[in-house]
């Protein structure tokens, strides 16, 4: 009698409906970012928010959590529940640079956050003030070997700083770093000739180039930018492998279900593929990126040691 009873129990168990995963999302979604309203990543976050709301009918809030170079926002999301309700619009600084640059980072990007979707990328432009007697990158390098020059940045450890350090290292020259806390003051000093050069974000310096206030010599990505197609890359000018590209992407707390990650990735890709989204990104000199979560994660793993090695080689003191 035992075997028939067990067989009956098995049949009854199999007849029960499988418990379905909860439908996502169950509540409000928050997209947190460490950038100010109107910035490139803020525009990207709001494009995703509008698409997610239209798709799922749930509120999506974009929260600008400023401070510590993006660390505050990243730390907040890293410590949030892994249910897809709290997401991070991350920049590469907080993910691949700050782990080496900061003496005590309150989160570990490699273990506390998971890649969802890389959204956009944008190069910096190497620009010089209009009085610099150099019409090419090689002429600039030759000038630096004869004359003391300066390069401005948006602060220690920013992409504008590290691009300048990478350039010096690869060119075999030494240029005095001048960090700024105010972008308006930086651009004012650059156009006035008080600093020599700047590796600025394409969105911030391209208008200055078009107005004739500064002169652009190259882009820092591995391929030319559609926003400035006539400018050569540093890679094609002989600085092989030079790549100082800023990117922004969606991340979630580690432990977020794979099904939620896949769903968010697919919808993020749909959001950024629309003509309206591409037009907004193009106006900021950005290109959309279509990497899978695994490809995005691989990019993070590849970039982290690259910048760590440069930071240590040039002796940038850890930020306390």
Under CATH at level 1, the class of the largest domain stands as Alpha Beta
Find the CATH topology of the largest domain: D-Maltodextrin-Binding Protein, domain 2
Q: The biggest beta sheet, please?
A: 10 strands, mixed
Query: Low-confidence stretches at least 5 residues in length (pLDDT < 50)?
Result: 15-19
The class by helix and strand makeup works out as alpha/beta
CATH-level-4 superfamily name of the largest domain: Bordetella uptake gene, domain 1
Topology, number of strands? 10
Please tell me what the overall shape is.
Answer: globular
The ordered H/E elements are HEHEHEHHEHEHEHEHEEHHEH
Average of pLDDT: 90
Radius of gyration: 23 Å
CATH architecture grouping of the largest domain: 3-Layer(aba) Sandwich
User: What count of helical segments does DSSP give?
Assistant: 12
Q: What number of domains?
A: 2
- Note the beta-strand portion: 15-25%
CA(first)-CA(last) distance: 73 Å
Percentage of residues in helical conformation: 40-55%
Chart the SSEs and their pairings.
Elements: H1 2-15, E1 29-33, H2 40-56, E2 60-64, H3 71-78, E3 86-91, H4 92-101, H5 109-112, E4 113-129, H6 137-146, E5 150-153, H7 159-171, E6 176-179, H8 183-192, E7 197-201, H9 202-211, E8 214-219, E9 245-253, H10 258-272, H11 275-283, E10 287-288, H12 293-314
Helix pairs in contact: 2-10, 4-12, 7-12
Give a quick precis of the structure:
This protein is of the alpha/beta class. It has helices spanning 2-15, 40-56, 71-78, 92-101, 109-112, 137-146, 159-171, 183-192, 202-211, 258-272, 275-283, 293-314, and strands spanning 29-33, 60-64, 86-91, 113-129, 150-153, 176-179, 197-201, 214-219, 245-253, 287-288.
């Amino acid at each position: 009698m035992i075997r028939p009873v067990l067989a009956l129990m098995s049949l009854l168990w199999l007849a029960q409906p499988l418990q379905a995963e909860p439908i996502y999302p169950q509540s409000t979604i928050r997209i947190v970012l460490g950038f100010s309203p109107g910035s490139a990543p803020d525009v990207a976050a709001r494009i995703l928010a509008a698409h997610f709301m239209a798709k799922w009918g749930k509120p999506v809030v974009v929260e600008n959590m400023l401070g510590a170079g993006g660390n505050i926002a990243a730390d907040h999301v890293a410590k949030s529940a892994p249910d897809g309700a709290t997401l991070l619009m991350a920049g590469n600084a907080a993910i691949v640079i700050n782990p080496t640059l900061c003496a005590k980072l309150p989160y570990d990007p490699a273990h506390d956050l998971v890649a969802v979707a890389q959204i956009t990328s944008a190069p910096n432009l190497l620009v010089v003030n209009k009085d610099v007697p150099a019409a090419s990158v090689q002429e600039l390098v030759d000038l630096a070997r004869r004359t003391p020059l300066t390069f401005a940045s948006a602060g220690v450890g920013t992409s504008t700083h590290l691009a300048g350090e990478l350039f010096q290292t690869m060119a075999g020259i030494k240029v005095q770093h001048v960090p700024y806390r105010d972008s308006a003051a930086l651009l004012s000093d650059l156009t006035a000739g008080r600093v020599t050069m700047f590796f600025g974000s394409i969105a911030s310096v391209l208008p200055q180039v078009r107005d004739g206030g500064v002169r652009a010599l190259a882009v820092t990505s591995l391929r030319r930018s559609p926003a400035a197609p006539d400018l050569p890359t540093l890679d094609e000018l002989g600085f092989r492998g030079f790549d100082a590209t800023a990117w922004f992407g969606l991340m979630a707390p580690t432990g977020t279900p794979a099904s939620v990650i896949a769903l968010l990735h697919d919808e993020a890709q749909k959001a950024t593929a629309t003509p309206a989204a591409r037009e907004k990104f193009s106006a900021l000199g950005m290109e959309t990126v279509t990497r899978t979560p695994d490809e995005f994660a691989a990019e993070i793993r590849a970039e982290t040691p690259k910048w760590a090695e440069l930071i240590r080689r040039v002796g940038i003191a850890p930020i306390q």
